[in-house]
Design a protein that fits this description.
By secondary structure, the chain is of the alpha+beta class. It has four helices and ten strands, in the order E-E-E-H-E-H-E-E-E-E-E-H-E-H. Helix 1 packs parallel to helix 4.
Length: 196
């Protein structure tokens, strides 16, 4: 079974195309027009072993909000589609991700119930051209569209770049664990309800 998917979103504000393969090698091609965000999305692919292509054009002359949020929507939708009925997945994944002085706790449940807990204080508002407040907007859009529960908590950190990078790397590792096929339950949906 190939666990691949595509998602597109075209509005008056953005034109987004996302392709992913959950059983990839971490090959990435990302271009959103926001270099730091490109770097963070590349972390998801590289460290999550997800082949990922993202092409986004947005109204960056306004700001990056619509682009970042809509990429989150498309990435979440592609993840949900690639997982299908979620048969055989481990379902849960977590990570304690250090990035120099920063430490992020990321935990995921591919539950079918979108919920985000975001416990993060960022010391600066801008990294390059990236508005750090868009990190929560991306995670909220991704979580809602994917239908997952996601907790992101920063346990320590002073440098905004390190904090955000720890979140994205931690998300990659937690996702890799959660979407992995468990060889002991390959034909079972991991829920007492029988559906996710």
């Amino acid at each position: 079974m190939k666990r691949t998917a595509k998602a597109e979103r075209k509005t008056k504000e953005t034109d987004i195309k996302v392709e992913l393969s959950l059983d990839g090698q971490g090959e990435v091609e990302v271009d959103t027009g926001i270099p730091f965000f490109d770097h963070m999305l590349s972390m998801i692919g590289k460290h999550g072993l997800i082949d990922l292509k993202v092409k986004a054009k947005g109204d960056l002359e306004v700001d990056g909000h619509h682009t970042v949020e809509d990429v989150g929507i498309c990435l979440g939708q592609a993840l949900k589609d690639a997982l299908g009925d979620k048969r055989g997945i481990r379902r849960y994944g977590s990570s304690m991700m250090p990035m120099d002085e920063s430490l992020a706790l990321i935990a995921i449940d591919i539950s079918g119930r979108p919920y985000l807990v975001y416990d993060v204080d960022l010391p600066v508002e801008i990294i390059g051209t990236y508005d750090t407040s868009l990190t929560v907007e991306f995670l909220q859009a991704f979580t809602t569209s994917a239908g997952i529960t996601l907790h992101a908590k920063i346990l320590s950190g002073r440098n905004a770049h390190h904090i955000v990078e720890a979140i994205f790397k931690g998300l990659a590792i937690a996702l890799q664990a959660a979407v992995e096929i468990n060889p002991r339950i390959t034909e079972v949906i991991p829920s007492t309800k029988g559906v996710i």
